[in-house]
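Q: What residues go here?
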């Protein structure tokens, strides 16, 4: 329970930090490729303001479950904070952009019924591959910066650093 985000039923930031540290060490020692996606729900504040926090909570759960349901068994998705999720992709190199875009489309096509209205949300995604000497902070920051490029380019997009 200490490693689970109770709202979304996916791992929490504490768990993600442990797994990222372990996978970065494997990358440093053995050269295993490692990808990271930073996923942020677009216009999330508007969902909360317009439809209420319960609708926002349901949207968070929907995004978390959509991401989790569409990953390989060895991948890890977790809630980083607020409306942000990280997806750790071990043993990926080429094709990370395709995985990121596939996840983006799955979220875009998911919906919720909120008070008789259909709610759709989109996500902006930034991705990066691990580099020799990466710290957790540098690895996550690079993916976060790529995600902000997606936001700046119009949201509901993928950018890879």
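A:
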């Amino acid at each position: 329970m200490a490693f689970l985000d109770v709202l979304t039923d996916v791992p929490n930031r504490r768990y993600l930090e442990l797994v990222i540290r372990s996978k970065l060490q494997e990358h440093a020692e053995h050269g295993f490729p490692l990808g990271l996606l930073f996923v942020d729900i677009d216009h999330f504040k508007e969902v909360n303001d317009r439809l209420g926090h319960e609708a926002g909570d349901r949207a968070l759960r929907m995004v978390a479950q959509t991401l989790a349901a569409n990953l390989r068994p060895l991948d890890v998705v977790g809630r980083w904070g607020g409306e942000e999720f990280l997806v750790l992709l071990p043993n990926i190199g080429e094709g990370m952009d395709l995985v990121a875009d596939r996840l983006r489309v799955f979220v875009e096509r998911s919906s919720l019924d909120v008070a008789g209205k259909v709610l759709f949300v989109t996500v902006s995604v930034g991705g990066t591959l691990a580099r020799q000497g990466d710290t957790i902070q540098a690895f996550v920051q690079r993916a976060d910066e790529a995600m902000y490029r997606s936001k700046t380019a119009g949201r509901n997009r993928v950018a890879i650093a």
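A: Context that may help when evaluating the design: The chain has one domain: 13-160. The beta strands are 34-41, 76-81, 84-90, 112-114, 117-119, 123-129, 158-160.
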